[in-house]
Amino acid sequence: MVHVTAQNAPRLSVAALVAIKPGHRPRLIYRTHRRRRASRRKGFTEADYAALLDAAHRQLGGPIVLVWDNC
User: What are 27's strand-pairing partners?
Assistant: First the structure.
């Protein structure tokens, strides 16, 4: 469970993936992005998603099969 207070940053975006490998425990890999008041950027960019997938690939040490839902 993640608790978020909206005192200074009213918007928090989360991008996550679940890595499942037979015989191993599932792993959750995620990144967060807080919107700054002065910034017009509301959420993740294409580069942010690419960085998340790159980090997951390095962390897991193997190929990734990506299923993108609600795209």
Answer: 19
